[in-house]
Structure formats: C-alpha cells, structure tokens
Amino acid sequence: MTRFCPRFPELVGPRYWLPLEPFEFGWASPVGCDNLRCGRCGSPVRAAVTGERRHYACACQEHDETGVLLLDGEPDDLYPPILTDWGCAGHPDLVLPATVDGVRLDAATDWDAVAADSVLAPPFTPPLVDLRAVWPTRLHRLLGAERALLSRAVAGLLAAEDPRLVLGAYHFFVNEPAAAGAELLGPSVAARRDWLGSVPDLLDQAALVLHERLHRVGGEADRPALEVAEELALAGVGPSHTPLALPPDWVRTHAKTLARANSRWISALVYVAKSFPAARRDEFLRDLEEVAPEPVRAAVAQHFRTF
Questions:
Q1: What residue spans define the domains of the chain?
Q2: How far apart are CA 62 and CA 59, in angstroms?
C-alpha cells in the first residue's frame, strides 16, 4: 500500500529535515516530502541545497526555500500559486525486515528493548520536529502490521522503576493516545499514584496523557482512564483544560471542589457553564462565585456578554 504525505506536503529549507529513505512520508511537521511530482509537466521535483536555501525544481518551474512551505495552501495563506501543481507522488510502506537508523527490525526483534532504547538513547532525532519521544513515535507511524508490537512494548515501560522510561511512555502516548497499549494508562496511574507523586512533575504528566487519551477515545471507551482522571482532578491535578475534558454533569456536581483544588481552572469551569441550560448555568456560576468571586466574575465577563 502506498502512503501519501498529508493534504499539504511540505517544502523545507536546509535547517529542516528532508528524508532520504523512500518510505519516509510526512508523518509530522516539519518533515519534507522527498517524492514530489509536478502535475503540470509530469516530471519529478528535484531538491538540492545551495547555501542557505534548498532549491526545488521540476521541468517547468522552480522554487528556493529557507523555511517551511505547505504546498497547495489556502489562497489567503499567501503561498505562491505557481507551485500548486506539485504534490506527493506516494511512498512505499516500511516492510520488514528493514534497518531504520541502524536498528534492525525483523521477526526476531526484541520490541521491549527497542522501546526502552529509543526512549533513553534514540538513534536519531529529526531536526526541529517538536515532539517528545520522537523516535518511537516516528517508528510507530512508519510501521504497518508491527505497529502494535512497538506500542505495547512502550506500554510495558509504564511499570518501569526508572522514571525516565515512564515519562518516555507518557510522551509517546500523548502523541499516540489511541495506540495499542494505551488502555493500560488508567490502571497504571491508579496503581502507581503514590510513586508518581514522589517524582517531580511525573503525576502531572500522567494526568496530561490521561486527558489526551480521553480526548481521543472518550470516557465511555476507557472508563479506567476517566475514573482516575476524575480522582486526580478532585485533588487539583490535571492540565489547564481539565474541566473541558471531563463529563459536564460530573464537573457541575463537583464545581466547588474543582475550583478550590486548582484556581487555574476557574476560566475553564466558567466556560463549561455555556453548555448548561440557563437555570443550571446560573446556579453553577453562583456556586463558583462562592469559592472565587473575582476570578469568576472576570471569567464571566470574558465568556459571556451578560450575566
């Protein structure tokens, strides 16, 4: 099966990454497409670095790039219309056995070792790609049938005694919240909550990955993740959008507790009220005002025209 770069393939300057392997498609930004073809003249688009620019050319047009350019962007993006006929011509699947950045992948691969090594000592870091756990994330997006072998091996790191491995697993599942093995996040955080709380910032990262998981699959699909996210929220642990990620009725029931637990959530709590019927909304906002009058009034002024 041929894979294609996203809707808008990217041209990239020399500071950014233009892969050489045919199977490397635009799995993240900025990752340049190395198999562009012109729909106008039918010829491939060649790329070569010239000083501080990367020069792209087909048989009928050319372009010099220093930064990142999305092809076929919307008209108001101000991208040169002359390049709208360039597009991704497709990339072959990564088929095992294969070697990726010196790592041999085949039927005998120890995926647990690959997962741990890629977190502690990644064999390659794509330049300027703003993702944590970027190497296992990249490999997961490139793999086909073996994808679940890698993600379940990463999930195995959730039980590690080395905080770096646990954090690496959290970072991976923030990027890939629906990957096989992500269903272990909720039970793992529940079982290791005290230990996670003993390591600086690790419990906060656990809450973040749980919310990413819930955002992707929903609480009904992963009740353990929802239950532990709710428990953490009552203790004031969670990202800034926590009230928006949890069931509105649950948030309404626990509004005062949440407002007392984490004052950073006041604005998000007030925003949640917009989805309530008028009577419930007014009651909800009055409850919040009892806890934090001035922040609630400021948030109401921000999110509502009148109150």
A1: 10-88, 98-239
A2: 8
For residues 6 and 29, what is the distance between their CA atoms, to the nearest angstrom?
Answer: 10
SS3 sequence of the chain? CCECCCCCCEEECCCCECCCCCCCCCCCCCECCCCEEECCCCCECEEEEECCEEEEECCCCEEEECCEEECCCCHHHCCCHHHCCEEECCECCCCCCEEECCEEECCCCCHHHHHHHHHHCCCCCCCCCCCCCHHHHHHHHHCCCCHHHHHHHHHHHHHCCCHHHHHHHHHHHHHCCCCCCHHHHHHHHHHCHHHHHHCCCHHHHHHHHHHHHHHHHCCCCCHHHHHHHHHHHHCCCCCCCHHHHCCHHHHHHCHHHHHHHCHHHHHHHHHHHHHCCHHHHHHHHHHHHHHCHHHHHHHHHHHCCCC
Residue with token string 């950014």? 16
Please name which of 219, 223, 273 lies closest in space to residue 251, comparing C-alpha atoms.
Answer: 273
Pairing of strands 86-88, 36-38: antiparallel
pLDDT digits (tens, 9 = 90+) for 123-150: 999 999 999 999 999 999 999 999 999 9
Q: What is the pLDDT of residues 227-251, one digit of tens each?
A: 999 999 999 999 999 999 999 899 9
